[in-house]
Fold each of these.
Amino acid sequence: MLSRRFFATAVKEVTHVSDVVIVGGGPAGLTMAAAIKSSHILKDLQCTLVESSDMCRSLQDYCDDPPERILNRCVSITPATVEHMKQLAAWKFVRPDRIQNYDYIRTYDGLTNASMDFDSPNLATMIENSNIQSSLYQRILELNSEQPLNQLVLKDNTKVTGITRDSKTNWPIVKLSNGDTIKTRLLIGCDGGRSPVRKFAGIESRGWAYNTWGIVGTLKYKNTGFRSPTGWQRFLPTGPLAQLPLPDSWLSIVWSVPPELAMILMSLSDKSFISILNAASRLSQDELNYLYKIARDEPEKLQDEVNWRLQVFNNKLTADQEEKYPLEVDYIVPKSRGRFPLKLSHADDYVDERIALVGDAAHTTHPLAGQGLNMGQADIQSLVKTLETARERGLDYGTKFALEPYFSTRYPANHVMLGVVDKIHKIYSAKFPPLVWARSLGVNVLNNLPLLKDLIVGQVSHRKMP
Ligand SMILES: Cc1cc2nc3c(=O)[nH]c(=O)nc-3n(C[C@H](O)[C@H](O)[C@H](O)COP(=O)(O)OP(=O)(O)OC[C@H]3O[C@@H](n4cnc5c(N)ncnc54)[C@H](O)[C@@H]3O)c2cc1C
């Protein structure tokens, strides 16, 4: 928690003034910066981006990484997000050897096996967060060289340590860890779920923790046979296990589990973790519960326990049934396992006088539908349009009045998405037999209604349907 003192720090002397200050160099902050500097209506604004991490060096290093070192923070992005990055001329800098398009996703119920398949050309693209950030960073460098008089100022390794307001103009004054202070007409918080900018503005954020951790990792299938790249999601009562395709039989996982199970899974050796992951994509919940106990109490026995159970299970499968499960995983990149707490949160407002919130600073969601970053991209498109309109009309773009259309456009859309994802999470967490039966019946019916499924795909991928 940030103390009140964070915001109350007295500013002796303002060292810089900037039309716009963006806090955060994550996917949202870098996209926001590239979008402002690409807009013929906004590009002359003096714009500064502040990021606490060693961003520029790590994004530069990313470009020279060997192809096999795919990082563990990957996201599934929609065609709308790809299109946005193309419009910003950032997509040309994406490393193509480290992305994977996929047309097909299969979801199946861990208790009943009821399944739903989504099949649509270019359904989504898997990409590392760093690939997104690095491409935007390179685009910003390109824009800076094209527009030497309108360069974006990038301040990485620099933390925002305090925010206050100018007593005369009411403009935000941002205090930085290097001792500088910047007064700004518009402060944009792209500073993630714990957003200091949101706290400074006193904007309430509502929601709840899912009491769940998302375990991520980069792994490799034993062989991919002739299968086309497919996304898999098994809804277990402990939380969904998603296996998403990367190039050359690599895959990225997000396995959502309660904290106690997360501790066990994180403590396993790489080989034992692979065993239990393969078990979790096929075996029954009763068997998994038993295996989780073995993993906790006698981890040295886990691989043998899993192997014979999987052998029994696999021997019963016909070739057709085999296709309904992901292939066996046999390698994990050492140290690629990581875990993240999962939370639903939604800010009551996205704007205040001279403040706008974007991306995770405004909302966070469960990753089961792969929407968080995509929602942030849609926020940016809306905020840029709002700023452009304000400027064209000769308004002061930093006022709450001018910023209001951004909030009124994005809040309802995000609210619906957050609600839908939360409901899916709740429905699939249920173990009560009548509910499990009802959800499986619903899924089976829905799976046979292609038009309705196309509609869902269209909504989730933000595509206009024919
Ligand atoms: C396990 C998992 C899987 C996910 N999968 C998907 C997916 O498949 N598809 C999808 O669309 N989304 C997915 N998401 C969500 C997605 O990762 C986030 O929505 C997205 O990364 C948020 O980007 P952001 O730029 O808003 O925030 P962040 O990435 O959190 O960036 C915030 C930045 O602000 C900086 N910052 C914070 N405070 C300060 C300060 N005081 N001073 C300076 N800098 C500061 C931080 O250093 C950071 O770089 C997933 C999330 C998780 C946890």
Note: The two ends are 47 Å apart (CA to CA).
Amino acid sequence: MSSDDLNLDDILAKGAQDADYNGDYQAGFAAVIGRPNVGKSTLMNELLGQKLSITSHKPQTTRHRIHGILTTDAYQIIYVDTPGMHLGGKKSINDYMNRTANSAFVDVDVILFVVEAGRWTDEDQAVARKLKGADAPVILLINKVDKFENKEALLPFIQKVSEQLTFDALIPVSAYKKIGLQAITDEVLKRLPKQAAIFPEDYVTDRSTRFLAAEIIREKLMRNLGNEVPYGATVEIEQFKFDEEEGRWLVNGLILVERPGQKQIVIGKKGELIKKIGSEARKDLIALLDARVHLELWVKIKENWSDDARALASLGYDDN
Ligand SMILES: Nc1nc2c(ncn2[C@@H]2O[C@H](COP(=O)(O)OP(=O)(O)O)[C@@H](O)[C@H]2O)c(=O)[nH]1
Ligand SMILES: [Mg+2]
């Protein structure tokens, strides 16, 4: 999953488009930080106007760091979506996700700390504590304000959060209702350095299409499964190529689970669930690749992959 991804160091070394630098252009990184399930990925997708990062109502849907790049004539904002920082969960995969989240706010220009309107938990508290040591300015985004009809009702919550951390700006937002998105861009731009674009202008992410394809399949898995399987499942792309003759993409996805019972659940009665997952994933893959797609999914048992450092690395959980 990682070998064919773009290498940020290579891109930075090339100096991007320094020659064209006009003196006013702004570019930099904005890390999206917070506990699981506050809406970080949904928000990033809305800011980009494009679905890059997978989302679901289950915590820990995002496992990898992913850059979403927004380029205009005046600026390039590179949003860094991260797995939610979480407590509990003692497996190697939990370590991996927390390490990924922790490393994401080093070397960024702005931190967007996302919390959920009306809900402040121990995990938010833990993130707030971490942010005290951060160098970059923190903008607090209170997401899901659509849940509150009356803005006044939010005041006690804002008061409480203000006592827990210091932040540079506070913006009530709703990814669902697209409230506050322009304010986020404005506040980020106030803090973004003047420099040339970091990525070429046609790049929307630092991840390969193959990686995005695996993530799409994993999203459909997360969304279709009950609570017993999602955390024990991952996806590996075995074949990803364009068939010139047929004029379509051939994608083979291998779904790895940890136990025979989980395999049965993913397949479903008479194969119905895996069929549903496949047809939902295919739809998104067609949108991603802008072409016809032939998708085949297999399920295999790989015991203990989520707590085995070597297995994790071979499955692409090695990028921080
Ligand atoms: N009501 C409401 N729900 C939202 C909003 N943004 C995200 N969600 C939901 O919150 C859940 C978690 O979203 P996700 O983006 O995966 O959260 P993440 O774990 O922080 O990346 C999903 O079910 C989203 O649909 C919002 O603005 N309002
Ligand atoms: Mg996420």
Note: The mean pLDDT is 90.
